[in-house]
Amino acid sequence: MRILGIDPGYAICGYGVLDYDENSAGFQVVDYGTFQSREGTAFAERILIIYEGIRQIIKLYQPQVMAIEELFFSRNTTTAIATGQARGVLILAAAQTRLPVYEYKPVQVKKAVTGYGRADKKQVQLMVQTILKLDELPEPDDAADALALAICQAYTGPRPDFKLKGAYNYDYSLFE
């Protein structure tokens, strides 16, 4: 199964594409990286960079499922709203290609990858490196988080309770 993991952001958005063999429980890294915009870039341009970037990744690698981080912000509502808008663009790109989307809370991802729901960024990076047998630490941490989301999806499987829901729940039959 080919899995696309996404760590949403509006200045830096991480992505990771993995092939997962359920029989051997083995991974193969296909690609990972980030979509970035320079400081001072207009917000509409930032969203366009993310949209065009994710469309290219989906077209190029044709994943079977997308795992995206559920947003959690307790203080900075301006950042939360902007990140939510970037997340919406990512979900739109998936919906346009009928790509199923699953969402995970950060604590779920950390627990799936490290065994500890309160692991720090460095611990997550180290475990992603170990699980994927990478020679180097995956960087930047946005890309490592995206790979962690893909690993979490592989370990969790297509559980209906993690399928995108709430206001973002969509029925593809409406598009036909």
Structural class: alpha/beta
Quick one: overall form? globular
Number of domains: 1
Mean pLDDT, nearest integer? Answer: 89
The quaternary organization reads as single chain
Instruction: Bin the strand percentage.
Output: 15-25%
CATH superfamily: Ribonuclease H-like superfamily/Ribonuclease H
- Low-confidence regions: 166-176
Specify the CATH class.
Alpha Beta
CATH architecture: 2-Layer Sandwich
Rg estimate, integer Å: 15 Å
Count every beta strand, where a strand is a DSSP E run of 2 or more residues: 5
> Order of strands in the sheet with the most strands?
3-2-1-4-5
CATH third-tier fold name:
Nucleotidyltransferase, domain 5
Share of helix, binned: 40-55%
User: Count the helices. How many?
Assistant: 5
Family: Belongs to the RuvC family.
Enzyme class: hydrolase
EC number: 3.1.21.10
Main location: cytoplasm
